Amino acid sequence: xxxxxxxxERVADLPAADWNALDHGGFPFLRHEFLAALENTRxxxxxxxxxxxxxxxRDAQGLxxxxxxxxxxxxxxxxxxxxxxxQAYARHGLRYYxxxxxxxxxxxxxxxxxxxxxxxxxxxxxxGALRRQLQRALLDAATDARLSSVHLLFPVVGDRxxxxxxxxxxxxxxxxxxxxxxxxxxxxxxxxxxxxxxKAKRERRRxxxxxxxxxxxxxxxxxxxxxxxxWELHRITxxxxxxxxxxxxxxxVQIARTMGDALLFKFAKQSEEIVAVAVxxxxxxxLYGRYWGAAENHHSLHFETCYHQGIEFxxxxxxxxxxxxxxxxHKVSRGFVPTTTHSAHFIFEPRFRA
Length: 354
Fold this sequence. Notes:
This protein has 354 residues and is α+β, with helices and mostly antiparallel strands. It is 32% helix and 27% strand. Helix 8 packs across helix 9 (249-258). The two termini are 36 Å apart.
């Protein structure tokens, strides 16, 4: 198969139908609609530190494979920390940035990174060979651009297996939930020890006793007012940590309007007033918890909104997994288990490969 390599520097230059014909494994954060929303609302672009650098391979039928690449001038929004490499480069008078990151921007969730057209992804041997060709093309392009390194963040196992021995691998840990065929949330609690079950029920009861109830809205169902309220509440969480949010209000609105089937708001209401929200994304078999915010503090509200409500939704929908985000050993007592996550790194400077 003859393949042509092309670098694309704007998401808008890739037809949505071609990009979405690639096998994303049901991963919502690499849908064209999501990436286009980031670009259209200037969350990514030349001025943001996330410059699109999408490497594509084309055959006679069109787009055959691609890697969602981004040229980075910093390490902001990656969730895999490489500051030690950057500092080591600086101490040796070398330039670490720009580097190439293959990732879903601002998203610490495992998913495919070396994307193949669906008809080419079915044969395991052929798919592996094509992924290897794609990673070689990435390294060649990065070499030509004199980049310091290439980083695959949160790749799936098939991507990792296609990489050469020169790639360095890093392992981290998140806390994920697995659906064991639970019929209800009560059925799920039946898998707990008596002490853990009592704690979870107490958390849920405290929220209910505060007069708080929950309403679900898919992005396609939410009003503009609800979407903007969700954005304002999630911004509070970022501001408390001294940061601005990754996504703008317009980004929330565009995602809701273009891929509303994959966006879920869980609104906590008290006397019909929204007091908190959790923002989730829905994949093919996985729920992803991404953002949270509250206008006021209520005991156990964070646990109920972000964890218990998410698990209940997964059980109702028959979703297999729930990834609630990074960090948090406190999740273990609420039914989440330690889960290994991976990243892979190609460092061109031989002195820093050890």
